[in-house]
Design a protein that fits this description.
Layout lengths: L17 H20 L10 E6 L5 H12 L3 E6 L11 H11 L2 E5 L3 H11 L3 E3 L7 H15 L6 E5 L5 H12 L3 E5 L8 H14 L2 E5 L2 H5 L4 E4 L12 H8 L6 H6 L5 E4 L10 H10 L8 H4 L6 H20 L1
Parallel strand pairs: 1-2, 1-3, 3-4, 5-6, 5-8, 6-7, 8-9
Helix pairs in contact: 1-5, 1-13, 2-13, 3-4, 5-6, 5-13, 6-7
This protein binds phosphoric acid mono(formamide)ester (CP) and norvaline.
Length: about 325
């Protein structure tokens, strides 16, 4: 039977079967080829979408906008400053209004429940562009990048180093369990994913042949890994006063040459971005002045080194988001 996810929302990959995820990956590869060859693909002409951002973004916003333009759609961008959302109008009422004007809604914000409510009350497909819990569109780009590198995903070992209970780490654990991969959360015990999510992923892993491990020993965790992945140590929405504690907890989990040497010789480095790998950002410089760190979650020579795939991964956001919009709207 063919895969059909038309009309569905894309809130977390927990809602999708491995076959549906593979279908989205294959569609993404098709769209990437079309984009590369210059083949026009305005398959959704006449449709309009709205992008709601309660947190800042470069990649996700630009990927949604450019993908929508390529598909022939109209786009409205709204943030908290320029809309009534949250201040003068509830999310429920906003959802109701937007669902009558738009064919699809992207949302980036805080609680997962908000994106779920948007889907419930708008009546149109809603795409999660990042919440405190999950970042599912990022996952498709990440896995497409892994697939482009290694082909077969089965039992590929992906190690997430750092804040292993953040939105990106949670989502990696979900997608790796769905696709039969070997996922390792490598970080301090106090920053491990919620027990309930681990349990859910381990149950999925039993079905798919995936393996899930939570380890605080860097050497053991990264041994022979195919992918070393990290993310910033303090996510959007977290209190900046937490930097001091987070740095002391996560310093031993920085991705550096020693880590990369312990991984497989063919290993790649991945990061969802943005990244604090040098002093060329306001935060990076502030952290250097306060704590003397030149780089945080990843050393500069790994970030720009030959094993890094971070910019390819970023480009893949466009192709994969296009696939999600197409598959749910066409
Ligand atoms: N990776 C990612 O979501 O980047 P942005 O925050 O720039 O959208
Ligand atoms: N964990 C990060 C991901 C950014 C794409 C954050 O939520 O800020």
């Amino acid at each position: 039977m063919g895969i059909n996810i038309r009309g569905r929302s894309f809130l977390t990959l927990l809602d999708f079967t491995p076959e549906e995820i593979r279908y989205l990956l294959s569609l993404s590869a098709d769209f990437k080829a079309k984009k590369r060859s210059g083949e026009v693909h305005k398959y959704l002409e006449g449709k309009n979408i709205v992008l709601l951002f309660e947190k800042t973004s470069t990649r996700t916003r630009c990927a949604f906008e450019t993908a929508a333009f390529d598909l022939g759609m109209g786009v409205t961008f709204l943030d908290q400053k320029s809309s009534q959302m949250g201040k003068k109008e509830s999310l429920r009422d906003t959802a109701n209004v937007l669902g009558r004007m738009y064919d699809g809604i992207e949302y980036r914000g805080y609680e997962q429940k908000v994106v779920e409510d948007l889907a419930k009350y708008s009546g149109v497909p809603v795409w999660n562009g990042l919440t405190d819990d999950f970042h599912p569109t990022q996952m498709l780009a990440d896995i497409l990048t892994v697939q482009e590198e290694f082909g077969d995903l089965h039992h590929k070992k992906l190690v997430f180093m750092g804040d292993a209970r953040n939105n990106v780490a949670n989502s990696l654990m979900v997608v790796c369990s769905k696709l039969g991969m070997h996922y390792v959360a490598c970080g301090p015990k106090s920053l491990m994913p919620k027990e309930s999510l681990v349990k859910q992923c381990k149950a999925i892993a039993k079905e798919t042949g995936a393996k899930i491990e939570l380890l605080d020993d860097v050497k053991k965790a990264t041994k022979d890994a195919d992918v070393i992945y990290t993310d910033i140590w303090l996510s959007m929405g977290e209190d900046p006063s937490l930097w001091k504690k987070r740095i002391s907890l996560l310093k031993p989990y920085q991705v550096n040459q020693k880590v990369m040497k312990n991984a497989s010789p063919d290993a790649i480095f991945m990061h969802c971005l943005p990244s604090f790998h040098d002093r060329n950002t306001e935060v990076g410089e502030e952290i250097y002045q306060t704590y003397g760190l030149e780089s945080m979650e990843v050393a500069d020579d790994v970030f720009y080194g030959p094993q890094s795939r971070v910019f390819k991964e970023a480009e893949n956001r466009q192709h994969t988001i296009k696939a999600v919009m197409y598959a749910t709207l066409y």
